[in-house]
Design a protein that fits this description.
This protein is an alpha/beta fold and 170 residues long. It has 4 helices and 14 strands.
Length: 170
Amino acid sequence: MKTIVKQDIAAYAKEYKLCGSIIRQFITLMIHNRSFRTLYYVRFGKWSRLFSWLLPGEPTFHLPFSKTIGAGVLFFHSYGTIISPEAVIGEGCRITCNITIGFKDGKSPVIGNRVEILPGAVISGDVTIGDDCVIGPNCVVHKSVPANCVVIGNPAIILKRDGKIVREAL
């Protein structure tokens, strides 16, 4: 757990160009970044409630107490973000505002490593998002996405695969 939190702090520190010791970075993030606070409280479960009354997390960010969120995940402006308790999120993902990662027919998505999910995207059901993908804004994904793809639209289509424009249906 300690290593995961250190990787989270390092990812946020790099993104927000924080300097100083890891303790200083942690304090800065806890005071100024509600998304980080919410992620930290989820990482430490019930014990974090000792601090959450003093520094509350983001109230519209519904992140379940779960062990299925990889290290170094960045949540940006996580207003209106809802993540299913059964969803799996890989390491180094970047997740923005108004995202829904939910279950459908009792199944939840599996998000690979280094996936970027842009504002308004909906990912639901028994789908797998491959590593190094980008899910475009307001994209609705109900089918699995292979690795190294850029997906856009509703219904979702693959715009790029391995850096080449392909425009193919999922």
